[in-house]
Design brief:
- Chains A, B, C: Residues 27-179, 209-347 form the Sodium/calcium exchanger membrane region domain.
- Chains A, B, C: InterPro entries: CaH_exchang, CAX-like, NaCa_Exmemb, NCX_ion-bd_dom_sf.
- Chains A, B, C: It is found in: Endomembrane system.
- The structure is a homotrimer of 354-residue chains.
- The first copy, chain A, is mostly helical and 354 residues long.
- In chain A, 82% of the residues lie in helices and 1% in strands.
- Chain A has helices spanning 2-23, 27-56, 58-68, 71-82, 86-115, 123-147, 153-181, 193-199, 206-238, 242-267, 271-296, 310-327, 334-353; strands at residues 119-120, 331-332.
- In chain A, helix 12 runs antiparallel to helix 13 (334-353).
- The longest helix of chain A is centred in the middle third of the chain and has 33 residues, at 206-238.
Chain lengths: 354, 354, 354
């Protein structure tokens, strides 16, 4: 049902976006139209990717999810980069990390926990992901921040490029580890979840999924480019800083569809899937989308270094430490969710006033 | 026996405090009198609360402990706030966190470990508390520090109020989780510690406990107000900074009675109780006493933001990480205690010279 | 075979070092000669210590390893201290911590993981070490950094001396814990590794080992003193900063032999030994070599405070957090190794450009 709603919103939203942008409707109204349309299109892209992933088998499917999973964010960010809005891009990636780690996981734990006293998820997977979170956020993001403090712009960019390449290589190595060399090695023997996977049926066939993916991606690109153009006016109208627009607004728009499906999974007690969406998506943004954007930025007039502001960095570092502590035991409940949500609200308050 | 000593000290100390303050005895002597009296009164308040808690049953008892457990610190801090000594209040709360986490837990582990090779405590409880420690200290205290750096005083206070409200709400949620929705859920089935609890007998009856609690609280308020007045002279006399008085002296005076009972519990191999006193008290200070003081400070001339100095903040953050690492396996020994004590001494040296 | 190579290199390297330094050969060539000679001598010292340790039994053997294990680094550092190169000494100790934690453990996990799907090591030992790593690096190194920011040099040195003494005392306490009070307490009962130890045969007899240890140590001292003299010219020639020479070059030279044996152990699936070399050596540098050097520096013209630069400190802190997260489950694979190596490369890039 929610899927149908998103499909309808997408089909209606795209033409309205086109008409509104041609007729130059008020920026604030168009900002809302664009946001809703992107949420709907992101849901459609997600379902098309999912369908393709099922058709293509687990390995290529995993790879598809791992590369297209955050396609919408990548596209919005590319247009923001093109417009020279470096700080909004970094802010929206920060927001994506915080949103996935704290908001999505928090809502999933909380909503799932209202129905079930205790929910459990794969503790090996959680620890594997925890190592990667520390690597990406605490090593790869903190090091350039501290080292480039007294450095000129050229060396800062050189370091950023080097670290970006290492992040991408390690992300590919993680896929190799997960889908090839250690596939199933860390899974509990008594949970034959291969069987469960066989039951999955794709929503769309291969051809239809590819066509939908293609069209929706072009539509997202169009709407994103115009969305980016409204930031300045919207920021002035509501008194929102660039940081707040990036960290909270763009991040929620870019991830809303994904968020919804994680919470639904938690409510169905499929915590492994919910956690995979939340943490997997965080890692994908940190280890794939962000470094790709740093490298892509080299072809634009303003290149983007891998250097966050202190508030962004500290929010991510503390968010990662909190999430690791709460997920370390492979067990969740409503209170764990409440803690994550409270942390998200605290950071939201901070970014609003900064 | 120790109880009798404290009772005697309390009964003798209060009149001496009154006489000394009226006759204006030397500030240094009165500082010592006040400190000893408060330690004694804190012990009496603790026993009255304990007795009431047993009489009222586990839920209301837990609530009583959770609100009156740090009543003495709350009272001293209110008088310090009234006197505008914002930085001493923040320092004494820092000291309370460090004292409970490092000194109390350290002494408990060490003394208990001298008698027993290995002592164990509830690992689920330890992890639950670890999550809250990271939330309170690493998220809720670090975020305002970093975000308010370039902010004006009004926004800083607004953020402080917002975070304080969230801390109190989450503290209440934690009580709901512990005493209502998940009571006993995470407890080992083979440890029937309900039986143990039934054996407990209150030291005092309901009426006597309430009367004692009432009188001792008023006495603490009186002595605290005068204690706060001696800080300036004492600091000058001994060459102690405000930070050192707050972090080390006030924190030890306010918690001494509690410290003693934790160590005694550890020596009796009741590590669950010892850890609960140390970590539970830390959480209570961080998530209840401190935010209440921030909100209360709004009615005083100088309001208190939730912004620590860097040395205070870093001490708490590193102390929390150390404690979490050492308690994560639900197992303690003398060496774990030595590590915590060494960390406390290092921080004490730091605060002495700063 | 590798042992014979190192013996030959040592026997050839020392006279070439002497001749080259007398004939004043080019500093860059001599830098390389000195480095190779020290690597060879370090291997010889390591084997002599190992032989003595086996002859003397586990307690004194453990103590020998714990004090002579980083003798070469200690000697190089003493000559650098004498030459007033404080920042190179701190940098090389940073490099030693990073090299042992990230490079050695990373290579061991990676190389071992190429041969075995999963390798396991003692999880109790790993957690015990994790507590010490947090204590040493995150408490004892971070606290002086933050506290001495606004402090004069004298107070900074006083704090440094105090913390150094506490570090040494806790290091001795850790030995007492490991070899006396809790020997074997945390070991799995089903792994009778006492038997394995009995099979070990020393390479050299007691007398020969002592003579070799004596001669090699004198040779290392001689070569180290001359190596330190080449740093300035080498730095200018290659455009390397003092930080880079210390963190990367000196650290690798001082630890190369040790590194090699850890990787060989990992390849033989003796992960407990490999992890012990990596983490044990880190702890020895942080809790014994460094504080000894701080105290020794008092007899030299320039005394060395326990205050790292921010990049050094943050590298160590993040490295420690990463290592703890990855080793917390007592299980390693090639990917864990790749993560550690990637972190080392990122830090190496940072120190190169700084």
């Amino acid at each position: 049902m929610m899927n149908k709603l998103f499909t309808a919103l997408g089909i209606v939203g795209v033409p309205i976006s086109v008409i509104g942008s041609i007729l130059q409707w008020s920026a604030v109204i168009m900002f809302i139209v664009y946001c809703v349309t992107i949420v709907a299109l992101a849901s459609i892209i997600g379902r098309a990717t999912e369908s393709l992933a099922i058709v293509m088998g687990p390995r290529i499917g995993g790879l598809l999810n791992a590369t297209f999973g955050n396609a919408v964010e990548l596209i919005i960010s590319i247009f923001a980069l093109k417009a020279g809005l470096i700080s909004i891009v970094l802010a929206s990636l920060t927001g994506s990390v915080l949103g996935n780690l704290l908001l999505v996981a928090g809502l999933s734990f909380f909503v799932g926990g209202l129905k079930y006293k205790r929910q459990s998820f794969d503790v090996h997977e959680a620890r594997h992901n925890a190592g990667l979170l520390i690597f990406a956020v605490i090593v790869a993001f903190v090091i350039p921040e501290v080292f480039t403090h007294t450095m000129n712009d050229r060396d800062t960019m050189t370091i950023s490029i080097g670290i970006s390449i290492i992040l991408i290589l390690l992300y590919l190595a993680a896929l190799l580890f997960k889908f090839v060399t250690h596939r199933g090695i860390y899974q509990d023997q008594d949970k034959p979840n291969e069987k469960k996977k066989k039951e999955e049926k794709p929503e769309w066939g291969k051809i239809k999924a590819i066509v939908v993916l293609f069209i929706a991606t072009i539509a997202v690109a169009y709407v994103s480019e115009h969305l980016v153009g409204t930031f300045e006016v919207v920021g002035e109208t509501f008194g929102w800083s660039e940081l707040f627009i990036g960290v909270i607004i763009v991040a929620i728009v870019g991830n809303a569809a994904e968020h919804a499906s994680a919470v639904i999974m938690a409510y169905k007690n499929k915590m492994d899937v919910a956690v995979e969406i939340a943490v997997g998506s965080t890692l994908q943004v940190a280890m794939f989308v962000l470094p790709i954007l740093v490298l892509l930025s080299l072809i634009f007039p303003t290149s983007m270094p891998l250097v966050f502001t202190w508030p962004e960095l500290i929010s991510m570092v503390t968010g990662v430490l909190l999430m690791i502590m709460l997920s370390n035991d492979g067990d969740s409940n409503w209170f764990d969710g409440a803690v994550l949500l409270a942390a998200y609200v605290i950071m939201g308050i901070g970014f609003y006033f900064i």
